[in-house]
Design a protein that fits this description.
With 222 residues, the protein is α+β, with helices and mostly antiparallel strands. It has helices at 4-18, 32-39, 46-54, 63-75, 87-100, 104-146, 204-214; strands spanning 151-154, 162-166, 169-175, 181-186, 195-201.
Length: 222
């Protein structure tokens, strides 16, 4: 079981069984906790969930009982809260199954399977959007670099090295086999161009500190 959500649900079930007598949630005896834990990500309407839970053995639950138990499961027991992007889809599935006469445990099972399957799709979409934003940012930095505007470190497409422009001066970082970086002052953005070596540094952050000074030294920098 590698998914954090599945592990959290398993942990809750184990703790519930071992610690039922000392639990502060006295109305959640029997299967109520297990049912709610399974349904918590499924966007089941609260009125319907409350009615179903009150049909199970135990004292009558109020809407406050339900809402606060859900909150505790999410915040204290680390179960995942419902994904807003799946609300409309889950409600549509729920309504269709309810109208077909499907009983609640079966609806919960179907929705839990659906939500689990959709998590990977959502993560893939988020990753693709992050990559799109990253590439858009890189293209903007490349545009600034090639239009002679000051810009932070960037790697133009097809280049092996990183470049930045500060105070109108161009600096180049070349990676070394030991993962250090060699900093040069160059006259143009061109991997084949020769330049004046400034030094070797462990990271771009270390090189940036030197660039901040070198960019304003009397020209040429030595």
């Amino acid at each position: 079981m590698r998914e954090q959500r599945s592990l959290a649900k398993l942990a809750l079930e184990i703790v519930t069984r071992l610690d039922q007598d000392s639990s502060i949630w006295k109305k959640w005896e029997g299967p109520r906790d297990k049912v709610l834990a399974s349904a918590i990500e499924c966007w089941i309407p609260k009125d319907d969930m409350l009615a179903f839970l009150n049909g199970l053995p135990g004292p009558a639950l109020t809407m406050t009982d339900l809402e606060q138990r859900m909150k505790a499961m999410i915040e204290e027991e680390y179960l995942g809260d419902p994904e807003p992007k799946l609300e409309a889809e889950c409600l549509a599935i729920y309504q269709a199954e309810k109208e077909a006469g499907t009983e609640m445990p079966a609806i919960i099972g179907r929705l839990a399977d659906y939500v689990g399957a959709q998590w990977q799709r959502l993560r893939d979409e988020e990753r693709a959007e992050a990559e799109r934003r990253s590439e858009a940012g890189r293209l903007e930095r490349e545009r600034r670099l090639l239009s002679y505007a000051d810009c932070p470190w960037t790697q133009i497409k097809g280049s092996k090295y990183f470049y930045c422009r500060k105070n109108g001066r161009v600096f180049q970082l070349k990676p070394n086999s030991d993962k250090s970086l060699t900093l040069y002052r160059v006259q143009e953005v061109d991997d084949a161009a020769s330049g004046d070596m400034i030094g070797r540094y462990r990271s771009r952050g270390d090189a940036s500190k030197v660039v901040a000074k070198a960019a304003y030294e009397p020209d040429p920098f030595r």
